[in-house]
């Protein structure tokens, strides 16, 4: 009888032990050791499970002898016995089957999808691909890598010579939103003019970001105003910075055109440092020296050597006489130390120094802080149209007896900083951040003059003023993925708000760069032999300076809120709904909506 009682007691103890629950916490890491958000952690044989948050952490109550099934897109599923442990860290192994790149652009969900499973087309360009195109800046690399993206260097277009305008799907530069690590990046201070691409619009200067700092670039080829704002009509470019590099990596580039101009030199460095397995620090720097190109050519039209014309047909000279006359004329020009190359058409010369920093660190209690910052300094020199000595309204032969070719010289400063904090509460992932950006462009003019000054008194160099743009954005985003929501397989819910301040400034140039001193020049004679006087051109030739009447310092604010819903209705049907309401302090409100389906 005693034996039976003891046996029953042991059975009860065994059943209690088997039923005992433990709360397991931990992190899921990718194959490279970085946090893996969106990984699924299930208690094998049950429907009890959860998904990892933005920093890869999870918490799940399971039986003490359970086995965890850990899976994520692009990785091999792993079975991990609990064995009574309360903290388990899992490092995934990349799958041999390439299922595409996991992207976060085009959806506010905390858990990304592969770019072959999203409702909108997303191109992913890796750092390896960017380097493979042998282009020294981001805009040119994207032009080669993404068919929907186009950026071309401009010539004789004032400041646009130095800030390449970019276009997605043929729409304007101001309709392309640029993100860095998913956060809005400020635009340039330059308004494109003079018939350049995107005339009248303002774009983002992609080339301030060193290529060495980039992990990948996601290009959303679809309108996304309901997600990010009305400046995302053409699409979104999300530049993801490196967060897993180790050691020191350097590279260099040298090239020039077959015309022996356009010499380009580039050197960059990337330093990756692990922070005690709790974070990372990635620092990148870049130097680019770009020489000018010149595709102007001498006008060899022979008509001036062919004597009189009858209609459209020259008479009075043979072809040999034309050749002899032209040779004699060229010899005379050369003997006086001149040539006919008095115009330059091509890319401007520039020199760029830039650096970027990207860092993240996991604090206690599941908090994660992240910091991103960058700064660049760029100088540029680009020509205008030449002024001939027989143009009295624009020239002063006492200063430039043979005419002159004026130049625009720019100095561009760019600074940016992102500071944010992530934390998961009750299954909801919170992301609070502040993003600051500033861009300034200063104009100087050289090799020019103010023709309205008295003869022989004009300076040759001028300070013509500056433009500056500042943007500060505070953003709070909340997201959560629900599983088994009624008939739905899952439901991603994301919502948040944003407050943005924009400031634009125009600063005047020096007085001589814009003033009209009233000189008149003779431009002809009347039939009676009297001189015809005409007003001369005021201000510095090629780029008259900004005047006091042009000066301004204006700000506006934008308040926005958004809601994003995404659900796998079935394993084949994905539905995405988004809406955004925003209000600008200067022109009012706007509501945008979006619906997308993938089957």
Task: Give the topology, please.
Elements: H1 2-19, E1 21-29, E2 40-43, E3 49-51, E4 57-63, E5 67-71, E6 78-81, E7 90-91, E8 102-103, E9 113-114, E10 122-126, H2 127-132, H3 138-145, E11 149-151, E12 166-168, E13 176-180, E14 183-184, E15 214-220, H4 225-228, E16 235-241, E17 247-255, E18 264-274, E19 279-290, E20 309-310, E21 313-314, H5 319-335, E22 349-362, E23 368-383, E24 407-425, E25 428-446, E26 462-485, E27 488-507, H6 511-514, E28 520-525, E29 531-535, E30 552-568, E31 574-584, E32 588-598
Parallel strand pairs: 1-7, 13-16
Antiparallel strand pairs: 1-4, 2-3, 2-5, 5-6, 8-9, 10-15, 11-12, 13-14, 15-16, 17-18, 18-19, 19-22, 20-21, 22-23, 23-24, 24-25, 25-26, 26-27, 27-30, 28-29, 30-31, 31-32
Quick synopsis:
This protein is mostly beta strands. Helices cover 10% and strands 45% of the residues.
Strand content: 35-45%
- Uncertain segments of ≥5 residues (pLDDT<50)? 1-18
Q: Could you give the count of β-strands?
A: 32
Main beta sheet, described?
12 strands, antiparallel
Overall SS class: mainly beta
CATH fold call of the largest domain: Maltoporin, Chain A
Number of helices: 6
Strand order of the largest sheet: 17-18-19-22-23-24-25-26-27-30-31-32
Helix content: under 10%
Cα-to-Cα separation, first versus last residue: 67 Å
CATH architecture of the largest domain: Beta Barrel
What is the number of independent domains? Answer: 3
Estimated radius of gyration: 32 Å
The CATH first-level class of the largest domain comes to Mainly Beta
Mean pLDDT: 86
Anisotropy-based shape = elongated
């Amino acid at each position: 009888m005693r034996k039976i009682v003891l046996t029953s007691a042991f059975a009860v103890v065994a059943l209690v032990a088997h039923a005992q629950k433990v709360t397991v916490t931990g992190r899921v890491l990718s194959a490279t050791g970085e946090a893996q958000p969106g990984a699924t952690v299930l208690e094998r044989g049950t429907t009890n499970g959860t998904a990892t948050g933005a920093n890869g952490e999870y918490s799940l109550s399971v039986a003490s002898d359970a086995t965890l099934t850990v899976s994520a897109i692009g990785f091999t599923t792993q079975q991990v016995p609990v064995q009574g442990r309360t903290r388990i860290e899992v490092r995934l192994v990349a799958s041999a089957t390439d299922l595409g790149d996991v992207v976060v652009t085009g959806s506010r969900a905390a858990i990304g999808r592969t770019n072959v499973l999203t409702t909108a087309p997303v191109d992913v360009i890796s750092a390896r691909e960017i380097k493979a195109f042998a282009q020294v800046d981001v805009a040119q690399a994207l032009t080669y890598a993404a068919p929907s993206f186009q950026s071309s260097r401009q010539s004789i277009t004032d400041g646009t010579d130095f800030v390449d305008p970019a276009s997605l799907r043929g729409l304007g530069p101001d309709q392309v939103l640029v993100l860095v690590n998913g956060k809005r990046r400020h635009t340039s201070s330059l308004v494109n003019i003079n018939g350049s691409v995107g005339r009248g619009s303002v774009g983002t200067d992609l080339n301030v970001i060193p290529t060495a700092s980039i992990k990948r670039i996601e290009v959303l080829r679809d309108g996304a105003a309901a997600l990010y704002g009305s400046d995302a009509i053409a699409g979104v470019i999300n530049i993801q910075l490196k967060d897993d590099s180790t050691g020191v990596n350097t590279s260099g580039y040298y090239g020039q055109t077959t015309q022996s101009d356009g010499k380009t030199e580039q050197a960059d460095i990337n330093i990756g440092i692990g922070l005690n397995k709790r974070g990372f620090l990635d620092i990148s720097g870049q130097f680019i020296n770009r020489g000018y190109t010149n595709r102007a050519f001498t006008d060899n039209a022979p008509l001036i050597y062919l004597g009189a014309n009858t209609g459209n047909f020259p008479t009075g000279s043979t072809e040999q006489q034309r050749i002899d006359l032209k040779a004699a004329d060229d010899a005379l020009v050369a003997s006086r130390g001149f040539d006919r190359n008095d115009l330059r058409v091509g890319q401007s010369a520039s020199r760029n120094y830039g650096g970027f920093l990207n860092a993240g660190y996991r604090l206690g209690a599941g908090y994660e802080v992240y910091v991103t910052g960058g700064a660049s300094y760029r100088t540029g020199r680009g020509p205008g149209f030449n002024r001939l000595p027989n143009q009295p309204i624009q020239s002063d032969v006492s200063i430039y007896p043979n005419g002159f070719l004026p130049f625009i010289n720019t100095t561009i400063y760019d600074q940016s900083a992102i500071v944010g904090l992530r934390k998961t509460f009750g299954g909801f992932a919170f992301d609070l951040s502040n993003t600051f950006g500033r861009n300034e462009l200063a104009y100087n003019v050289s090799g020019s003059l103010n023709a309205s000054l008295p003869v022989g008194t004009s300076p040759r160099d001028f300070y013509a003023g500056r433009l500056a743009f500042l943007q500060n954005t505070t953003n709070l985003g909340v997201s959560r993925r629900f599983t088994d929501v009624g008939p739905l397989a899952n439901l991603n819910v994301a919502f948040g708000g944003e407050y943005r301040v924009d400031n634009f400034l125009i600063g005047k140039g020096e007085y001589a760069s814009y003033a009209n001193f009233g000189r008149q020049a003779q431009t002809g004679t009347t039939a009676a032999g009297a001189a015809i006087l005409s007003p001369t051109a005021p201000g510095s030739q090629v780029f008259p300076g900004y005047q006091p009447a042009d000066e301004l310092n204006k700000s506006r604010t934008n308040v926005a809120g958004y809601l994003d819903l995404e659900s796998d209705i079935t394993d084949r049907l994905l539905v995405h709904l988004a809406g955004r309401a925003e209000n600008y302090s200067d022109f009012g409100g706007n509501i945008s909506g979006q619906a997308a389906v993938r089957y």
